[in-house]
Amino acid sequence: MSRNSRGLYLIPYYLWMVLFVALPVILVAYYSLFDIEGHFTLSNYANFFTPVYLKMTLSSFWYALLITFFSLLVAYPAAYALTRTKHKQLWMLLIILPTWINLLLKAYAFIGIFGTYGPVNSLLQAAGLGEHQILFNDFSFVFVSVYIFIPFMIMPIFNALEDINPTLIAASRDLGASSFVTLRRVIFPLTLSGVRSGCMAVFIPALSLFMLTRLIAGNKVITLGTAIEQHFLVTQDWGMGSTVAVFLILFMAVLMPILGGGKEVRR
Questions:
Q1: What span, in angstroms and rounded, lies between the C-alpha atoms of 191 and 218?
Q2: How far does CA 53 lie from the centroid of its chain?
Q3: Which of 42, 92, 203, 243 has the highest local Cβ count within 10 Å?
Q4: Does 262 have pLDDT greater than 80?
């Protein structure tokens, strides 16, 4: 295939990137330069560094870190177990299936599950623990977020585990290493690329969550995504909402090479 023909095949890709990636970012940056009355200003950027927005930024990073940590805590053992089961591809399909369900539907399902008359509270009452308010707090927000993001953490880790050369594990056992030592010194270092990919797939979207903060956390968890939604849909201050979005894009642009970087361990 000639170089010119290869260039022709790349045209749809470049058009897609320009229309649906570059152009929206440019528009967001443009709107961030205007106040609520449509006047050109840089005050939006100055307002972002006030305590209110800095607190939202810290809150966003804190909850994104919690969601990523608990997702990794559950996903790594799950992915490791999957590689040692029969019909592993079928099990992976069952894990991926919930990602095909609309996020709003899953949020409303958890409202029913964690609600006052839901099965969780019914189980607690049957156990003699009484009725508890499970919804509209930090716990429910992190729990539901972890449930939603776990498949995106499991998939890259599972693929990294599948790529490990079995002879390396056998050599570790032959040299007298226990299962735990083999996991810590051989398997985990060889799957760091999958761990980084999973963390990136979870941490970056978790920074901009807004629907779950309203439906599951009852607006008791405030993030940058919540601020963007409020400015665009409630206060109609598109300039400030765009400014928050610009900083969120910058944070993501900085985090992507950090989470996705690093030299892969040679097999």
A1: 37
A2: 21
A3: 243
A4: no
The torsion angles phi and psi of 245, rounded to 5 degrees, stand at -65, -40
Residues 245, 32 contacting (CB under 8 angstroms): yes
Please give the average per-residue pLDDT across 71-76, as a whole number: 96
Phi, psi of 221 (to 5 degrees): -110, 120
Whether 260 has a pLDDT exceeding 70, the answer reads no
Are the C-beta atoms of 72 and 117 separated by less than 8 Å? no
Asked if 117 contacts 128 with a C-beta cutoff of 8 angstroms, the reply is no
Its pTM stands at 0.88
pLDDT: which is higher, 209 or 74? 74
- Rounded to whole angstroms, how far apart are CA atoms 228 and 225? 5
DSSP string, 167-187: HHHHHHHHTT--HHHHIIIII
Token pair in block for residue 155: 């998939």
